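Kindly review both lines to help learners:
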Amino acid sequence: MISRPTVGTSVIAACFAFGSTNSRVQGAALYWDASNASGIQAGNGNWDTSNANASGKNWSESPGGGGNIFWSTTSTPADDAYFTVNGSSLVTVVTNVTVNSMTFTGTGYSIAGNAGTAVTLAGPNITTNAAASISAVLAGTSGLTKLGTSTLTLSGVNTYTGTTTVSAGTLTLSGSGTLGAASGAINVAGGTLNLGGLARTRTGTVTLTSGSITNGTLNQTGGNFSVQSGTASAILGGTAGLNKTTSGTVTLTAANTYTGATTLSGGILIAGNTNALAGSSSVTLGGGSLHSSVGNINTNGLTITSGTLALNGTAAGSATLASGTNFAMSGGIWSLDLASSTDQIFGSGGGIFSITGGTFDLGGGGIDYTSSYNLLSGFASGSVSGLSFSNYDTVNYAAQFSPAGVLSFSVIPEPGSALAGLLISAGLFRRRRQRR
């Protein structure tokens, strides 16, 4: 015979449950509900794991609300937090909490934290389909992945480790905001990383897969910037170099200060600022294309082994090398514009140029074959061998490039004129012999 619990036993059990942490479904989807009234309600409240404070009972297991509970400290896997109803809502973290993911579809949410508290990210995903801000400290070892079309603003001194990935929307820093531990990697992969006008230093890898990095300074001291596609209008600084890889296009529009080498092996790198590459210790074009969209770019030396150099698109452009640095070309193409004015590379301070291969693409139409073009100037000395020319009138003219850095053309005699000249010369020679 099964005995029923006595009323006293039930009361004791209920009291015990009220004084303990939650015991319920693990890894649940929980919805912020600032009121125990019917339906989900936006509004201020505490994010709390302690049953001792009824004001922290602000989570519903149903998207329709009802039966509010506390946040669990023991859920494995951790619960997912959803903020779904529009309305001004200050959510204050009053005890340490662990969350698998956070999703914001309602407007007006701000997550703050009391001193000494943190939100531990058991999973990396924070989705903002409505703008949200988090000033509470974000901790954990899973990194952070920004998803959703809207903006997430971080203003806390975050301590999480792992990779920060911006896959969609905008991840913005504000005030003291950080992207977790400086050793963590950053991957901008479709969204926008807005530095909020701040300067931040990283030792982990920084990758621009696609998207943009804006509004501030990002210093890299532990490796190189790896860029594949997208735009960087923020200043890129530190001791890092910059590697352009894959087939995409990357545009740099800031006066960057990084001091490592710039290397291109694929795609297009566009220098959209005179000093976009100025801080670089050297620039090597080993594949892909180096373009500029301004009249002049400054570089610390330039080497072309493969790929294409195109200064200022279809207009004439120039590159000015730092004093004492060199220009070297052993392969690849320099795509020139000779129609409007002359593309040029300027050296100074004892710098030299050396050309041992490659091609000058002379651009086709608009060439004045009676003129000479000073393409390399200001160098202490130069040497030329193995250079070829393309995209010009090869029937009537021959192109030459001198160790003084000057391109010129000579007329190719017409075959009939040359033959006539030979015949006339031969006839004159024969007459002279007959007179003897």
Notes: The chain has one domain: 87-435. The longest helix spans residues 415-435.
